[in-house]
């Protein structure tokens, strides 16, 4: 009887442990689900911190002062550049943006009337609601605020933006402190590898941001010039929208092309065709010149997986998820390859996602370990 009793107690104890672990796992998943937007904001702060840190390191080659002061100078420099650009472009862009909002419903109606001249067009348009009803539904449903969150939710997200900027400055000033705190969650023998993974992630994101910033400027200027040469109204605003939305792969170019095509359609159907050609040409140049340069220094993202990940995050958290899906996927790929494929499976031959050199990773890891 005593043996059976001890066996029962052991079984009950194991069952309670399993139930406790399952409940804990569900609680953690629920916490991650309900706070996922906060996690994305923290990730956005980390990306800004990496950008500021890279700028500070570049300044450190010419100015020999402490790292904290370098980050502050880099922050002031970046903010000044953005403030100067906004002060120069804001008046004309705001005027054109208001005109764009007023003209888009007219453009939709003009496109509908033109398509209805054809038999196949009438068959399609008879199944669709009026353009004014579509526009009203889009505005009332909040779709614009979710898809174009960068533009329409700026005023409402000022608080979050300031928190992200402040957090990014703190992270950029003392990255070692936070990296060491994270590494202490792992056994001592594993900590050097943790620093290598963090260094690889940081360098990959840094090069990705540098390349993406150059790509955004390139697309904005080229689109602006091409649309201006064609005579498309509001070329500056449309070019700026194209540059900003190019931060979102796959969906950004489509989202930026739609208003430009509709505005051009008001002038003439052929101008709309030429505008489509402009966006296709710009994307071909960017895809074959700029993107390979970015992927040479960072991870290579599978297009199909990128689209699925973008859609998943867009459904979960809206526009913010769509914006941050690509860099977050890059981080996940680096972690999976280094931690699972290389360390767990022992496959060290497939390290194609590590675009940064081993010397760069070792140097960055050494910096993170200095205070250990």
**Average of the residue pLDDT scores:** 76
Global outline: globular
Structural class: mainly alpha
Strand percentage lies at under 5%
Number of helices: 16
What is the oligomeric state here? single chain
Low-confidence stretches: 138-156
Total count of domains = 2
Describe the overall structure:
- With 372 residues, the protein is mostly helical.
- The protein has two domains: 1-34; 35-368, no CATH class.
- The chain has helices spanning 2-34, 36-60, 67-115, 119-125, 131-141, 143-147, 149-152, 158-173, 175-183, 191-230, 235-245, 251-267, 269-297, 303-317, 319-344, 358-368.
- The longest helix has 49 residues, at 67-115.
- The protein is globular.
Question: What are the main properties of this structure?
Answer:
372 residues, mainly alpha, 2 domains, 16 helices, globular
Short précis:
The protein has helices at residues 2-34, 36-60, 67-115, 119-125, 131-141, 143-147, 149-152, 158-173, 175-183, 191-230, 235-245, 251-267, 269-297, 303-317, 319-344, 358-368. The chain has 372 residues and is mainly α. α3 (67-115) packs across α12, α10 packs antiparallel against α15 and α12 (251-267) packs antiparallel against α13.
């Amino acid at each position: 009887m005593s043996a059976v009793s001890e066996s029962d107690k052991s079984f009950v104890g194991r069952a309670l442990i399993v139930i406790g672990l399952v409940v804990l796992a569900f609680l953690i998943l629920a916490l991650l689900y309900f706070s996922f937007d906060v996690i994305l904001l923290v990730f956005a702060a980390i990306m800004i911190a990496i950008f500021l840190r890279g700028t500070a390191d570049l300044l450190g080659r010419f100015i020999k002062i402490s790292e904290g002061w370098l980050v502050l100078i880099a922050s002031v420099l970046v903010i000044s550049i953005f403030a100067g650009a906004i002060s120069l472009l804001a008046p004309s862009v705001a005027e054109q943006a208001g005109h764009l909002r007023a003209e888009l419903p007219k453009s939709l109606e003009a496109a509908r009337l033109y398509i209805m001249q054809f038999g196949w067009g009438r068959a399609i348009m008879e199944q669709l609601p009026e353009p004014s009803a579509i526009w009203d539904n889009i505005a009332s449903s909040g779709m614009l605020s979710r898809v174009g969150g960068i533009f329409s939710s700026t005023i409402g997200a000022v608080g979050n933006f300031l928190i992200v900027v402040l957090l990014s400055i703190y992270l950029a000033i003392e990255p070692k402190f936070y990296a060491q705190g994270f590494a202490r969650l792992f056994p001592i023998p594993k900590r050097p590898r943790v620093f290598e993974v963090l260094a690889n992630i940081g360098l990959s994101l840094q090069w990705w941001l540098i390349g993406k910033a150059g790509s955004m400027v390139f697309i904005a200027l080229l689109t602006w010039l091409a649309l201006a040469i064609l005579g498309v109204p509001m070329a500056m605003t449309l070019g700026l929208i194209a540059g900003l939305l190019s931060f979102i792969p796959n969906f950004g170019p489509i989202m930026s092309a739609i208003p430009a095509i509709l505005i051009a359609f008001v002038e003439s159907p052929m101008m709309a065709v030429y505008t489509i050609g402009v966006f296709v040409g710009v994307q071909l140049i960017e895809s074959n010149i700029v993107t390979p340069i970015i992927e040479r220094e960072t991870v290579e993202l599978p297009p199909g997986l990128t689209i699925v990940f973008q859609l998943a995050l867009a459904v979960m958290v809206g526009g913010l998820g769509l914006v941050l899906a690509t860099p977050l996927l890059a981080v996940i790929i680096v972690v999976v390859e280094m931690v699972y494929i290389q360390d767990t499976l022992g496959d060290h031959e497939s390290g194609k996602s590590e675009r940064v050199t081993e010397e760069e990773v070792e140097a960055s890891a050494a910096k993170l370990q200095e205070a250990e």
